[in-house]
Design brief:
heterodimer; A: 112 residues; mainly beta; 5-stranded antiparallel β-sheet; globular; B: mainly beta; 7-stranded mixed β-sheet; 11 strands
Chain lengths: 112, 117
């Protein structure tokens, strides 16, 4: 039973445009959500997070939106750059510091 | 800040060998570290939660006698794959979370590619 799902396995976007990555979850006990970026043969790199008391968090080119009623979050990257090409994972936890449940990942390709 | 170092990055060894992987938090103290496994083209699956000074908590289906975890200090956790077999070949990644109140992200090491011949 996948508690965190990323339904789009891949995304292709032109450089300079917006990349929108989506993530859905089923466990209503999740209250902290994170996005990670991962290159092959490397560990995930933390990008941005959001707690359930907020609906938006922004950090530079990255913005995460949370819709609790829909159990849905998204990551917006604007403008997209070729160096953003990687696999992006969303993750969720049920309490501060608790174990993370990861989505299946979305491979993003930013074309120059 | 928040750098996690994992060593070795790659191991190739014969079936039956035990392999130890180290995970260090370089610039912060980590009361909790996590060990994940990733199969090709799949997501990260949590294997166990490692707590400094106490026994690790294993996820369902993970053999604790097979995957020995030791968290002897606030900056070091080790995962030992005992009597490794080809089916243990995988990408193992650790993460660490700094202490303190509130939500803190986990920071990951660069992983260890384990290949059992």
């Amino acid at each position: 039973d996948q508690q965190v799902k990323q339904n789009s396995p891949s995304l292709s976007v032109q450089e300079g445009r917006i990349s929108i990555l989506n993530c859905d979850y089923t466990n209503s006990m999740f209250d902290y959500f994170l996005w990670y970026k991962k290159y092959p043969a490397e560990g995930p790199t933390f990008l941005i997070s959001i707690s359930s008391i907020k609906d938006k968090n922004e950090d530079g080119r990255f913005t995460v939106f949370l819709n609790k009623s829909a159990k849905h979050l998204s990551l917006h990257i604007v403008p997209s750059q070729p160096g953003d090409s990687a696999v992006y994972f969303c993750a969720a936890s049920g309490a501060a510091g608790n174990k993370l449940t990861f989505g299946g990942g979305t491979r993003v390709l930013v074309k120059p | 800040g928040a750098v996690v170092s994992q060593h070795p990055s790659r191991v190739i060894c014969k079936s039956g060998t035990s392999v130890k992987i180290e995970c260090r938090s370089l610039d912060f103290q980590a009361t909790t570290m996590f060990w994940y496994r990733q199969f090709p083209k799949q997501s990260l699956m949590l294997m166990a939660t490692s707590n400094e000074g106490s026994k690790a908590t294993y996820e369902q289906g993970v053999e604790k006698d097979k995957f020995l975890i030791n968290h002897a200090s606030l900056t070091l956790s080790t995962l030992t794959v005992t009597s490794a077999h080809p089916e243990d070949s995988s990408f193992y990644i650790c993460s660490a979370r700094s202490g303190g109140a509130g939500n803190q992200p986990q920071h990951f090491g660069d992983g260890t590619r384990l290949s059992i011949l």
